[in-house]
Amino acid sequence: MSNWSRRDFLRTGALTAVSLSGGAVVSADEAADRRPADGGAVLSCVTFKLDVTPDIGATMAYSIHREKKNSIYIRGAVFDDGEKRVVWAACDYLFICGETYLAWREKIAEAAGTQPLNVFLHSIHTHESMWIAPEFNPGPGDDWRKVSDQEYCDKTIAELTALIAEKCAGPWRPIAKLYTAEQRVWGLASCRRVLDKDGRFVDVRWSECTNPLMHQLPVGVIDPLLRSVVFEDTAGEKFLAIHFYATHPQTESLRDCVSPDVPGYALRMAEARFPGMEQVYFTGCGGNVTLGKYNVIEDDEGIALLGSRLGKYIIANLGALIEREMGKIEIVRASFDVPFDEQRLQMAAANVGNREYVRGTVDLWRTSNLTRLSFGPEVHLLSFELCEVCVEYQLYAQSLIPTLFLGSAAYGNCVTEYIPTADAYGDGSYESNPRDCVVKPEIEQSLKKAIDEVLADLTER
Prior knowledge:
By secondary structure, this protein is an alpha+beta fold. It is about 25% helix and about 25% strand. The protein contains eleven helices and 23 strands. The chain has helices at about 5-10, 30-35, 100-110, 150-170, 210-215, 260-275, 300-320, 340-345, 355-360, 390-400, 445-460; strands at about 20, 25, 45-50, 75-80, 85-90, 95, 120-125, 130, 175-185, 190, 195, 200-205, 225-235, 240-245, 280-285, 290, 320-325, 330-335, 365-375, 380-385, 390, 405-410, 420. The strands form seven sheets. Strands 3, 4, 5, 7, 9, 13, 14, 15 and 17 form a nine-stranded mixed sheet that branches. A hairpin with a 4-residue loop joins strand 4 and strand 5. The protein is globular, with a radius of gyration of 21 Å. About 50% of the residues are buried.
């Protein structure tokens, strides 16, 4: 358990002491001196990819890992412009939660030589995977509520920080060019909150949808764009691609094996097509978006069908790149209030273990962060520290800067559960159900104000 408090994370503006690969602890000033030699490049980068597949018998989010059929990973990159250093990490997990999330960011920051607020740590939200929150676990005799093993968590963060420290020791890759691509995707995302022609909620379209009528109903409110950012080094090699798409990536959830699901299948396709290019995928604000309209085949065949569809769009993006103006890293952050509903907090949770924990630690989570990271005037990324943010917030952010590239990553610290819009409350929507949502409708005003703040200078340009 970390000894960092939430207040420490919100107030800190200085580098922590860092432990480099040789094991020596250096001061913040010394760490700042150990910047990568850039050869004149504006940015430099190192990438990392760690296999985090659990052992047989490990506790998964909803079952036990009994058969190794797939591997899961933590993928990411560390960027440095000579003044600022940031880490972007995407985990093939359902969730990372609570004080464990804060502790992981602290340890990653130490390994990378930066501050915790500059570590953007996100889950992909694949359901056949791990739920990283050992503090949710009850005492002995109530094993059905377990969501993760402390031993697995400790082993994973130790291996990840060792890998990041090793990578940051060099060599660094200077970035010479920056590219983006955006493409409308067909046959993946669909809104789970099905509305009638008058905009009234009528039913739920689950990720694993067996009702033919639900397949026939309109797609509903989604963000249909797959967005990709690609980095090229001074030798002219495109070595890193980061992709953003907003939907639950779930086709299956209760099989006794880990799976990276649709995104993992798609990234394997892209890696095979572009073997020298690291592929990283972030799930956007897909809290109320699923694959349900198109998830018509069970098990691995369904994953292959939808995974190959996403993979083809990723590959198409990588073949249709547009060069963008690149600049130094800019970070704009807004802290905002999270209006917890005290009555909802007292109710039993639909998911295991978390509601009791949040009730006891709620003062740690009454504020959250929204951060914009920019790589120059044209390419911008949003990091939502909240959990299951609904797609309307991503669409709202994009509407403020419609001519600029904006990639959104959600599923940060997952103690807050669902973040619906105000009009979803009281109509029977899954996302606003008291068993799955612990915030008041005022969350919309609070989060949109934060979006306005982090994008304000871009709307004025």
